[in-house]
Structures are given as C-alpha cells and as structure tokens.
Design brief:
Two copies of one chain form a homodimer. Helix content of chain A is 35%, strand content 25%. The first copy, chain A, is globular, with a radius of gyration of 23 Å. In chain A, the strands form five sheets. Chain A has an eight-stranded mixed β-sheet with strand order 3-6-2-1-9-11-12-10, with helices on both faces. A four-stranded antiparallel β-sheet of chain A has the order 13-18-20-19, with helices on both faces. In chain A, strands 15-16-14-17 form a four-stranded antiparallel β-sheet, covered by helices on one side. In chain A, helix 10 packs across helix 11. In chain A, helix 1 links the parallel strand 1 and strand 2. By secondary structure, chain A is α/β, with parallel strands linked by helices. Chain A has eleven helices and 20 strands. The longest helix of chain A has 25 residues.
C-alpha cells in the first residue's frame, strides 16, 4: 500500500462541479488501495476577494489579522471537498493547517514551516481516513494563525510528503505537466515526461509558474518525488526527481520572464568595495538581484548593470541614490525588457549550446543586451516586444518540430 | 473601569459600512475608559450561503464538516472588524472561538459550552487590547471545531460576560429593545425599559426573536446584566435582570408564533402509560412538545392533542405511526395554526387576566382551539390567519393606546 499526497490548486476547486471532479480523482486513488492525503488551496478567487474586503475597510491592515482572515479561504474549500468525498461513500476528514500540525514562525503573510507535528495526520491515516488538509496555513507559538505566502499550498503538500515519507506527491494544475515552452505561445512545445529538481528550479524561477519554487527546493532537500499533472485530463504528467534518464533533448525548456527591470550605474569610481556596498544595501532592502554585468567605462570608471523584478525597480533606484559612493554616477532604470532562458542539465557537456541560442536570435535580428550563464541555464536580456518571437526561434533551434 | 461585553449580530456587520459603524460604537465605549470584549456573528447571509454551498455538494453532509465549514463565517467577520477598529487607532486583536478558550462537547451543530479557558482573553484585556471574539463556535476534546447552533453568538457573549464577571453584556440588534408586541405589526407597541429574565425567557420561547433562549437562561443562572439595544440608533434599550421595579403594566408583551404544528391522536385506549410511551419516543427523537391537551373521547377512549414545531411535524407522525399502542388510533397533523401569548410576571396575582384575553378574542369572533397557562404566561392556539388580528386586539385590551 502506497501513501500518496495530492495537491489541488484554487482553480481545481473553484465550484461545486470541479470539487466533485477532484473528489472523483481522490476516490479513484484511494480505491486503488492507496492511503491518500490531499492538500487544497482556497477556491478560485476567494483569497483575492478577501484581500479586497480587507482593503475596503483598512488600507494597511495588521498582518496578523490579514492571516486570520485569509485562512478562512482554505477552511471553506477543505470542508466542501470532504463533503464531496463523503458523497462517494468514503471515510474522510478535513484538517485545518494547525489541526494537521503545521507549526510556523511568526512572519505573518510569509511564514516558514518550523515543523509538522504529524500525530493527528498519522492517526487519521491509520484509521484509513482520506485526509483533506488546508494548504498555505499554519500556527505560530502564540496560537495565532499564519500563512505561508502565495504558492504556499505547494509547499504544504511537499512538506507533508517529506514528513510522512510519502511515495509520491502529485501536484494537480490546469496544465498537463511541464513543457519545453509555454504551450499557449509555442505550438511545437513538448511535454516533458521527467525533469530534475535543478532544472525545475530554474524553470520555476524563470517564470514557468507551474510549481512554487520553495516547494521544489524542499522536494529536492527531502528527495520527495513530485508529479505535475492536470486535474482535468487523465494523461500522465511530468515527474520531478533527482536524476532522470537523459533523453535525446539537450535542453528542457525555453522560458520568458517579462517581470524584469534593468538598473544601470554609469561612471563608478574604479575602487575596491563599490560592488559590495551596492549589493549589500539592496540585500538589506530584501531586493533580489538577478543578472549582474560589469564593464569598463570611460576615463577609468566602471559601468554596472543588473536586473531586479519590476516591483523593486523604484526602491532600488531610491536606495542607491542615497549611497555616498554613487554621488557622481548616473543611475537609470529601464523596463520594457524581458529575460529569455534555456534550461537543461545536459547543456554543460555541450559547448555549442550557447552559440546555437545566439545564432537563432541573430537570425531573427534580435539584439542581446545582457547574457548570463550557469551550469544548466543560459539567459539573455532582450527587448520585451521581441520576447515571444525569441522564444519560438530558440525553441525551434533546439526542439524542431518533426 | 468597567468591563463591557458587546455582541453584534450578522446584520450589524453585513458590509464594510456597517462594520465601520460597529467599530465606532466599540471605539466610543473603549475611549470612555472601559475594557471591551466584542462577540460577533458571521456577516449577513454568510452562514446561509455556506450551507447552500454544502448542500449543493452533498445533501447530507457530515455534521463535523458542516461545523468546519460554518466557523469560517465568523473568522471572516472578526478579522474584518478588528481591521476596522485598528483604523480608529486603537489596540485590538481578533480571537477565534478556540483561541478565546471556548471548549464544548462534541454535538456538532448544537454543541454546549463546557468551559471557557480565559487565560488568553484575560491576557489580552490586561494589555488593554479590545478583543473581538468569534461567536457561535468552539472546540471539542478532539481539537475539532464545533458550533453552538443558531443564535449561538448570544450564548457566547453571555458566557464570556459570566466567566469574566463583566459589568454588562450589551446585545446589539436591529430593534431598539424589547417591545410589548412586534412594533412592525402593532402600532401602539411599547418599548420596555426593563424586563425580568423569566419574562424574557417566555418572550424568547414564544418567538419574539430578540434574544436566543439559551443565552437568557445562562444570563439568569450567572446573574449577567443584559441590555438589548440597537446598533443603528443611540437610544437606550431594554435591561434584562432578575428583579425589576414593577411598572403599572400587568403584562409585558403579546407575541405570536406561527411555527406550530398540531398533532392529534384520536381513539387512544384508556390505559395507564400511554401518554408516557408517546412522549418518551418523541423525546428520544429530540422533538420538543409544547402545549398538551387530553380529553375524553367516545366509547371510553381518550383523545390527545399537542403542538410541536413545524419542522418536527412529519417526524412526529412517523414516529407515532410505528408505536404499537397507537395501532387503532387516528393520527393527524394540522398546520395553519398560530400560538398567541401574553407574558407578564404581574399576572399571577391578577385573576382576571385570562378572562380579559379571552374576551378580547371573543369580541373579534376568534375561535380558541387550545389553551395553556403558566404563572407568567397564557397561550392560545388559533387559526394562523387570525393571529395578527388577535395580537392587536389582545394588546389593545391590556395596553390601550393613550
């Protein structure tokens, strides 16, 4: 008998009909002889609706009260889903985050899981109950409710799978798996049958939005076998694990991320410690810096260019404007750019990968502003309006339509 | 410094504007130098909407899951109200039923409070926080959520007031207090400045719907001073307490209850124990019997008539139909009747009270089907369509418009 953790997102339980569909998937898994623990998000737009209600009343509500409010969303979805599973004649119980033993720190709105006290979960499983757990939420040391932040339900599911040593953690979404590119944009995008944690992490960071990044990191750390699949079709999904049987594919995916702002500092003094000062003040403001490029400027000065998310653009400019070492420099922020990346664990042993990508872009007359590489990733920054064309061209260069 | 418990019903917090209004009442009470604990129901139709969602998914959902679902309603209202109070610049914290220490038995949907562990409540009050508590809900010994049943928020408020020895428990509603009759129906209905617990209990039982009955019983038991008042106007309400200064009024109110079904058993054998058997099986089914009337029938048999709530009519008939001692009887269920009652602690010393009531009905040519009396109450069963006319006539006989 296997133990399977299944996670369903908000759109999968958006209304009564979809809840019944999810219940049928759960029932099928249970009737096949498995123990089943299910993690659910709040229904459809519930979380956004509750946030709107809060802001109507108070523009800056206390984070503790916001978490008290938002956790009601999953409370509704777990009980409704339990009722639907009950309708299939199966033993079932719903558990809130704290009932399932999710203990977190006290960073309301973005809490980290400290540990899961699994006695209740184990007791229910040993009674052969299907257990429906509220994702996204936990409790802190003061007995106050907390939330894990957006995408937290993925993390809840992986955490349970890790703690209970589940045989598999299935993440149900509205796509059939992980693709080599966005299938809505690139016609010949291929569904991957397998992908490594590292590749998935790069894809998630790059905006593929199939799986929350924290959950992939946790799955890698605890060797939880993940499967990404659709709640609407019966086809098999994508398995995410440590090592995979290398297929012929050199790269695993082409992604586009338009949430990019380009910050340039022109005319830096060529002294030691300048880069350290810049990036340490940004880190203090919790601003993540992605690609960094430094070049020699005129008159013995240096130019520094780096990317941040659009949200952080204005704060980054302000923060740097207050730095005394940057007094004589010119600081600019550019949006309207996009990051296009290829990801694949196979590329490190193939020296021609980068040139194949650049050639494909050159053939389309697309200008590259910045380049960044890692062992399993190559990213370029280009004009945002050329991004979709770039993705299609690069995808075609590596994964031609046969 | 006084400790005041304030309870606001669902209609008082139905939308953002009303929540702000309630927050202003709380702020005023707090700024006058009081400690304030607030008990809130779910917003407007939230509970009914959640019930409808559940029935859409499962016609007979498990009671435990229903409570898991419904308790989300107050979770939303307490956090929103806390955000509104916070907007007034005051220290505030919301607590769910279990966070406020409400421990109940495990009768899901109609749980009884076993005790309130007040350490968290007292700690928050000692920090001078305004505490917003979710009414209607608690937790059982298995750490599962429970609800106290309809009107449970009144009970939550009175229980907190009793446990914390509050100086006053204010129940805010959409009427200005307790009236001698329904002011929407009877023009010369008077607002009572004071009323005893016993009178209030009779009025509550009889369908005045101002205060939940269990809450009045609890207030009487623990001598909690209640005040019923409106959240929309500033006028003083009705005080409910043990003894009141008798005013000139003989009766305190005239009420109508149309939730009445009349069950008749005709042709009972005249043997001992028949009544016992009938009412014990009904009690086993949790069916409350109100007025009972037994009369001698034809041929040495007896006829028995009693009233139950309409909900229970069908079950009562079925239950009695299976009783072997009733094999040769004819059992009927009549609806379309109403109970009209007068209540007043003063009437026991005035022998003419009943005849004044009957005379008023006779003058209107209204036929009385059944009569029931207690020390402080006289009830009659009449045709439902004559009920409003009966209430007006009886009210006028005792409380003429001056």
């Amino acid at each position: 008998m296997a133990l399977i953790v299944q996670k369903f997102g908000g759109s999968s339980v958006a209304d009564a009909k979809r809840i019944q569909n999810v219940a049928s998937i759960i029932a099928e898994t249970y009737r096949a002889g498995n123990d089943v623990v299910v993690v659910v998000s709040a229904q459809g737009d519930t979380t956004d609706d509750l946030i709107a209600k809060a802001y109507e009343i108070n523009k800056r509500p206390a984070a503790r009260e916001m978490d008290q409010l938002l956790t009601a969303g999953e409370q509704i979805s777990i009980s409704l889903l339990a009722m639907a599973v009950e309708g299939f004649g199966l033993p079932v119980i719903s558990l809130l985050g704290w009932q399932a033993g999710f203990h977190t720190n006290s960073v309301y709105g973005a809490a980290r899981i400290k540990n899961i006290k699994t006695n209740r979960l184990r007791a229910e499983i040993s009674k052969h109950n299907i257990v429906i757990v509220a994702g996204f939420q936990g409790i802190n040391r003061y007995d106050d409710l907390t939330t894990l932040g957006r995408g937290g339900s993925d993390t809840s599911a992986v955490a349970i799978a890790a703690q209970l040593h589940a045989d598999k953690c299935q993440i149900f979404t509205d796509v059939e798996g992980v693709y080599t590119a966005d299938p809505r944009k690139v016609k010949n995008a291929l569904k991957l049958s397998e992908i490594t944690y590292d590749e998935m992490l790069e894809l998630a960071t790059l905006g593929a939005q199939v799986l929350n990044n924290r959950s992939v990191e946790m799955a890698k750390k605890y060797s939880v076998k993940l499967e990404v699949l659709s709640s609407l079709t019966k086809s098999s999904g994508t398995i995410v694990k440590e090592k995979i049987n290398m297929e012929k594919m050199l790269i695993r995916g082409v992604t586009k991320d338009t949430d990019v702002a380009l910050i340039s500092v022109v005319g830096l003094d060529d002294n030691p410690g300048v880069a350290f000062k810049i990036f340490s003040v940004l880190a203090q403001k919790n601003i993540n810096v992605d690609i960094i490029l430094q070049s020699v400027g005129r008159d013995g000065t240096k130019d520094l260019t780096f990317t941040v998310s659009k949200d952080n653009g204005v704060v980054a400019i302000e923060t740097l404007g207050n730095l005394s070492v940057l007094e004589n420099t010119k600081i600019t922020c550019t949006t309207g750019v996009a990051k296009v990346s290829i990801v694949g664990a196979g590329m490190e042993s193939h020296p021609g990968t980068a040139s194949t990508m650049f050639e494909a872009l050159y053939a389309q007359n697309i200008n590259i502003k910045m380049i960044s590489t890692s062992e399993i990733k190559i990213s370029v920054i280009i004009d945002a309006e050329e991004a979709d064309r770039a993705v299609a061209a690069v995808h075609n260069a590596f994964l031609p339509n046969d």
